[in-house]
Amino acid sequence: MSKIAVIDYNMGNLSSVKNAFLKLGQKVDIVSQPEILKDYDKIVLPGVGAFGDAMDHLRENEMDLSIKEFAKSGKPLLGICLGMQLLFDRSEEFGSHIGLGLVPGDIKYFDSKKFSKRLKVPHMGWNKLFVQKSSPLFNGLEESFYLYFVHSYHAICDEKYIIGKTLYGYEFASAVQNENVFGFQPHPEKSHNDGLKIVKNFIAI
What we know:
By secondary structure, the chain is of the alpha/beta class. The chain has one domain (4-204): Class I glutamine amidotransferase (GATase) domain (Rossmann fold), CATH 3.40.50.880. The protein has five helices and 13 strands.
């Protein structure tokens, strides 16, 4: 069985992520000590809240550096919601903030000028993810399926990193992959069977 760490940096609901893994028979450790990340086979970076605050928390004990070193090792890393956004170079949320730089690109607010009808931000609730290219995290899933979203900002990056897109006013990247680094804007751990399938696929990598 893989040894998996869920990173605790005071910016997320860790119980729902942990429970999703436990439901699939996979034990995970909640980890806040950066020096022990290297001892794990896979890590999950969850998160809820503001990008700048999250990066400040990660830098306080140099967890950001340990995450980058882990990614360089080639081991699988999964970012969820804010955790996905932190994988990118920078965000414009409440100013300009530097991210982890593991996936090239930026995090920007929904451009309501592009909306063809009146839509609310944040984008909240169930919406479809449309698979753009093959990824081990999509094994056994259809070409499109519903996941649960809660966010006001989204990633803008090169198409080569986009493995899933979602339509909300306009298409945006809802799932990304840069080699061993994966990111999902929606919450697989809160998305019933299809979401649990993504988690199961991550365990199986």
